[in-house]
Amino acid sequence: MPKITFMGAGSVVFAKNILGDSMLTEALRDSEIALYDIDPGRLKQSVAMINALNRNINEGRAKIKGFAGVENRRVALKAADFVVNAIQVGGYGPLINLDLAIPKKFGLRQTIGDTLGIGGVFRALRTIPIMLDFAADIEKVAPNAWFLNYSNPMAMLTGAMLRGTNVKTVGLCHSVQDCAHWLLKALGMYQGPGEQDTLRQKVAGINHQAWLLEIKLNGKDIYPECRAMADKKLEQWFKEWEKAGKPKAGGTEAHKPIWARKKDRSPDMVRLECVRKFGYYITESSEHNAEYMPYWIKKAYPELIDKYNIALDESKRRAIWGIGYWHKQVKELCENKGLAHKRTGEFGSYIMEAVTTGKPCQIGGSVMNTGLIPNLPANAAVEVPCLVDTNGVQGAYVGPLPPQCAALNMTNINTQLLTIEAALTRKREHIYHAAMLDPHTSSELPLDDIVKLCDALIEAHGDLLPKYK
User: Fold this and answer.
1) Distance (Å, whole) CA 106 – CA 98
2) Whole-model pTM above 0.85?
3) Pseudo-torsion of CA 62, 68, 74, 75, nearest 10°?
4) Please, which residues bridge with residue 324 across strands?
5) Are residues 354 and 448 in the same domain?
6) What stretch of H or E contains 389?
7) DSSP per-residue codes, 433-447
């Protein structure tokens, strides 16, 4: 009987998906499930929801218990076979605003700030110490557990676990599974769910900037057609934008995140431009990738914001919208005695099933680059196809990326590695180095201002960060 410990169980929707999937998996139905959160109120709601699922879809077979507070963390982790991590230090509130507002005072604008950029660096710096505390407990009370990390910044957190601990870790992201479908949707070439039977993709790189290296439909390489269509879509968009008088982004629903608006304003411009200029589509969204590169958010060229539909301060809008959405979901999920579930495409339950039974599966995961992508560094976390069985998660050899793709990845990896170095060594100078090498930050601010910005953010975080030398 496996034991699954869910860290950050107050994330009710995500807990429902991962644990609901597990209850629909025969090998996991009798699992012991430990729900852990530092917020007793949110934990109580999550426990109620998971208990309802257990009754409704699992005949009450799982054993469920909640654990609140740091003092109960080790008990929650004891003898776990799998630890699912979905924490967000600081939640959806002030820290997201802090990550955006202080850089903005220095003239640095961001969209999401959770994966790279100055926001991603500081999100990692306040999260890695908590993860290392988790790891210390796991090494003592659950040394054989697999750590399934879903928290951002994925590459930095997963890399810190793999470099700084002995915990078996894999990073998991939603952007891998449907990458090819998203490209076809953006191009108007998507034919519907039945297409998944014949659509094949090969994806590799780093988290949020992995590359769709191959896309085949019915065994035919359709990348040439996709590239031609991307060029056509971009030219069509730019003509319409100019004809309309180059309108500014916003609209009547600008308070909602792009993915929650009734009419999607974003035709995936940044990613389609990457297809046109670099030859390949990227896993994560245009609003994310706009801040992973130095080309899009520029004070000297403000028209690019509107031309490419770049959603500045998008994470702030998502936070405002998300808090209201969370309250709605609590009512719909945690107070719903008839709650049901269908197995999702999340990798979590498939990994746990494969490790438990030996029934193999293939996933896309972030693992250490043990020669899997030869033209990326060996100490970086790379996102590659992985085989999972009783031996655990094993990354597959991909081979060298196209040189332009590897070069773009390196601009992100530089910041990732130096952020991890800062977190593991507690050297303040490496925080500066990470920010100085960030593609977007370095393209907008001089070195002295980058140092001042880092100092301001360190001071604003206070006790949320450890002391740096």
Assistant:
1) 13
2) yes
3) -50
4) none
5) yes
6) strand 381-389
7) HHHHH-HHHHHHS-H
